[in-house]
């Protein structure tokens, strides 16, 4: 049986995803109760951003091997953002098996957040912090808490976590979190600070043109960790902060620049009401 896995795995490692999928589909059809084949099929679909199909294959693998720690760990860590329902099922199984460490619990918290279950996301992130207060899992869990608190309208608590991360870890987390704290929590109450954060961030970023990228949604990509998408959002927030300060001309320039970098931002600028800053008939961004 391994010949089918090996052939598919070779294609997968060489990024020949269609060939990898063809090989593994043959293996799955021939041996439907082979968990490793279902697992590899899921990984290939995930690599293709086909998270629903990946979730189906992972679900089947869990049915075949419901107590495989390796399988459950890989499902949780692979699918926490792409198919959070499947990841949550895997994560809760690991928690019941009492094998979930701080890293796995972070991915479970991330899955709860992606699924919109913010209370469970915060609670699970607290479980991570009981195990470890420092390191990647701890800091990433604090960010899950910050985003979840923001969605629950607890803006002050969210901002405080972001400030702590930036103050305590300036060399490792500033680039990741600066545009978040400035854009989502500070630009209305402290626009000067927001602009300072965003200037520092943008000054260390290359100019990127995302105008041809198709993004799933503005809100989803606002939470993305993709370095190629952050500058456009940082410039969007900077523009709004400048409008808050009454610097209309520079603010509009930043908004237009953000719209040129990112098509979803352009659509957002067309729909958003900016009448409190500019004349109601003034065009913010003319998306072609």
UniProtKB/TrEMBL annotation:
SMART domains given in the database record: TPR
InterPro entries linked: TPR-like_helical_dom_sf (IPR011990), TPR_rpt (IPR019734)
The protein's name in its UniProt record: Tetratricopeptide repeat protein
Organism: Halobaculum roseum
Keywords: TPR repeat
UniProt xrefs under Pfam families: TPR_16 (PF13432)
Source organism superkingdom: Archaea
TPR repeats: 35-68, 102-135
